Amino acid sequence: MRSPDLRCLPRTAAWQHREARSGFEVALFDVLDDGYRARGCTTAVEHGRSWIVDYDIRLDIFWRTRECAVSNRTASRAGSTLLESDGAGRWQVDGVEDPNLEGCIDIDLESSVLTNAFPVHRLELPVGARGYAPAAFVRVTDLAVERLEQTYLRVADEGPRSRYDYSAPAFDVACRLVYDESGLLLNYPGLAVRADGPLG
Predict the structure, then answer these.
(1) Residue 86: exposed, middle, or buried by beta-carbon count in 10 A (0-12, 13-18, 19+)?
(2) Best exposed site among 15, 85, 124, 171 by fewest CB in 10 Å?
(3) Close Cβ partners of 144 (under 8 Å, ≥ 6 residues apart)
(4) In the predicted model, is pLDDT for residue 10 greater than 90?
């Protein structure tokens, strides 16, 4: 029933995106006095379309998302959006309050598998416990923001790896996610695997 050790958070992590898309994601981490910062980029080809998404995410010491700046580039457009949260479930998108996100604590980027680490850190679930983690979900191509209902059920660890049965009914997703000792994703079936460490 070990929880992820945040002291082991690496300076960087990388994932190979495959199956659903073909691409690569790299993230850099900073441990701050008042929380954490994650900066990263994903470049990919999906359904014959190439895209680039950059993100800069700030979290407080409880791993609640407080700010997320996202920008994207495709052959036809470039854009950016800024999401800000009070940490208690109220959000502004580009300075305008979005009531549809009421109660969401986490950010979830369609372009990233890193963001699946945030609820795991924040919830600190013991084995056998289920956590509900509705998130502010940001689409790849147009940076549209919507509410995403999702749950994490922690199952028995496998050696040093923690495992969660993840569900996002809106996308008909139900799979087992595997994390390393620092709580970063090793394997997201059908989407990505870690490229800078042991695979899940």
Answers:
(1) exposed
(2) 171
(3) 138
(4) no
Q: For residue 7, is pLDDT > 80?
A: no
Domain boundary assignment for the chain: 6-194
Helix runs in the chain, H state only: 117-123
If phi > 0 it is left, if psi is from -120 to 50 it is alpha, else beta; for residue 181 that is alpha
Is the pLDDT at 196 greater than 90? The verdict is no
Whether 83 has a pLDDT exceeding 80, the answer reads: yes
User: Residue 160 has what DSSP assignment?
Assistant: T
- pLDDT category at 2 given cuts 50, 70, 90 is very low
Buried residues in 99-117 as b, exposed as e (16+ CB within 10 A): eebeebbbbbbbbbbbbbb
